[in-house]
Amino acid sequence: MASAGKFQVLTLTDVAAERVRDLVEDSDKDAIGLRVGIKKGGCAGMEYTMDLVEEIKAGDDVVEDKGAKIFVDPSAVLFLLGTEMDFEVTKFRSGFVFKNPNEVSACGCGESVSLQAADLSTFAR
User: Fold this and answer.
1) Structural domain harbouring 35
2) Does residue 33 belong to any structural domain of this protein?
3) Is residue 118, in this structure, part of any structural domain at all?
4) Does residue 68 form part of some domain?
5) Which residues 6+ apart lie within 8 Å of 90 measured at CB?
6) How many helices (H) and strands (E) does the chain have?
7) Collapsing DSSP states into helix, strand and coil, what is residue 123?
């Protein structure tokens, strides 16, 4: 679990935090937050995953930002360091958008990305 003073894996924009809070409040489960991870897939190699969380898993990195709780899957931490999570609504789609400094490339449809592990030296104090 994240400790006080530790660098947060990711941050949320105001709009993303509001959307996470809405998803948790409107859930028909006893959700406490949203889990963010990555998995292999898509034409660029990796996809972001999101699921409602009912209980904390061992190893989760917990991010509390603007009243929203994000649980980061331990296997995704090095790929998500420094990421800003946003939520956008356009004429054709609405959804979470990740501004990830570890992204090497993305597919044309925007559904998958190629990621590299974060350079930890950029996060050293």
Assistant:
1) 10-123
2) yes
3) yes
4) yes
5) none
6) 2, 9
7) helix
Domain count, the chain: 1
Q: Is residue 5 part of a domain?
A: no
pTM beyond cutoff 0.90: no
Distance between CA atoms of residues 31 and 78, nearest Å = 25
The pLDDT, as a whole number, for residue 5 is 45
CATH number at residue 105: 2.60.300.12
62-113 tens-digit pLDDT: 999 999 999 999 989 988 898 999 999 989 888 898 898 877 655 555 555 5
- Provide the CA 114 distance to its chain's centre, in angstroms: 15
Tell me: the pLDDT tens digits for 2-28? 444 467 889 999 999 999 999 999 999
Residues whose CB falls within 8 Å of the CB of residue 26, separated by 6 or more in sequence, listed in order: none
Tell me the DSSP string of 54-82. Answer: SSPPTTPEEEEETTEEEEE-GGGHHHHTT
